[in-house]
Write a structure and sequence with these properties.
- The chain has about 290 residues and is α/β, with parallel strands linked by helices.
- The chain has 13 helices and 6 strands.
- Helix 5 packs across helix 6 and helix 8 packs across helix 9.
- About 30% of the residues are buried.
Length: about 290
């Protein structure tokens, strides 16, 4: 029942792309079901992400869809495999919403992330004090256990930037100038956060660009989003949209293509990485003298 109610993002991405392969070959659900000797409803559940797929069945579908390249087949099989090693967030499953667990799982498994955050520093780059201030949402008083748990998870997520195996996450982030000016946590906390952001941007796998107010209107609107790319050869992507209480995930090719274009346009009007570093440093210096 749990798998039906909460299909993982990885499984939904796999299913959506299997559907794309089938449709590219102008095949019906019944054709795929025939290759698996099952009812078409089973194929429908696989394509919607409500059911996983056994490696043997996946190989049969790849044969049907004429995916012959061995590297490509390995990529599909790797995506279909549910990780058997214990994940560090498993013991928090009863304290975190499912969509957030999906986000953590995505960051642990994908090769790249292209993101836009207009008003706060992205979670992957946050310091502990800044993250605490964000999660507390301006409330005063002692930090409760729930807040401490969420901060710990946010900091643990940042391991993907410096992990050894698989290769570190390739992160490309466009950050709105508002994130550099909103004094979340106060002068000192924001100043230290900006210094940390400059340090993070020195990593070879991290690119940070600032979208200044002077850029004017920009494509896509103010909604934060991230585009996660699975490692080759699958080339599969999923878009994560943030709102106040949860994340929504989009796997359709037209959605990922749309947000890829929006992100490319944002990068085109944002400051270059070097200009962005100078801009962030100037803002940190301004805070130091206030």
């Amino acid at each position: 029942m749990g798998a039906e109610q909460y299909p993982t993002v990885r499984r939904r991405v796999l299913g959506a792309n299997l559907r794309r392969l089938r449709e590219d070959k102008s095949l019906l659900l019944e054709d795929a079901a025939g290759a698996l000797s099952c009812h078409p409803a089973k194929v429908s559940r696989i394509e919607s992400g409500r059911s996983g797929i056994r490696p043997l069945d996946l190989k049969a579908l790849l044969d049907l869809y004429a995916v012959a390249d061995s590297a490509a087949r390995d990529g599909w099989l790797a995506l279909a495999r549910e990780g058997r090693r214990q994940r560090w967030w498993r013991d928090l499953a009863d304290r975190l919403p499912q969509d957030f667990l999906d986000l953590i799982g995505l960051e642990a498994e994908v090769a790249s992330c292209r993101g836009f955050q207009p008003s706060i520093i992205p979670g992957l780059f946050q310091t502990e004090e800044y993250a605490t201030a964000v999660i507390q949402g301006g409330t005063v008083g002692p930090v409760d256990e729930q807040c401490r748990t969420r901060v710990r998870v946010r900091l643990d997520r940042q391991r993907v930037l410096t992990r050894g195996e698989p290769a570190p996450l390739q992160a490309f982030m466009v950050i709105g100038e508002a994130a550099l000016r909103q004094e979340i946590g106060g002068h000192r906390v924001l100043r230290e956060q900006l210094g940390h952001l400059i340090e993070i941007a020195q990593l070879s796998n991290v690119t940070v660009q600032v979208l200044p107010f002077s850029a004017g209107a920009y494509p896509g609107g103010p909604t934060p989003f991230s585009i996660y790319g699975f490692p080759p050869p699958s080339g599969m992507e999923v878009v994560s949209l943030e709102n106040i209480t949860s994340h929504a995930y989009l796997e359709r090719a037209q959605d990922t293509a749309h947000y890829s274009k929006v992100f490319a346009d944002l990068r085109g009007i944002a400051l270059s990485p070097l200009e962005s570093e100078a801009f962030i440093a100037a803002r940190a210096d301004q805070l130091a003298h206030q």
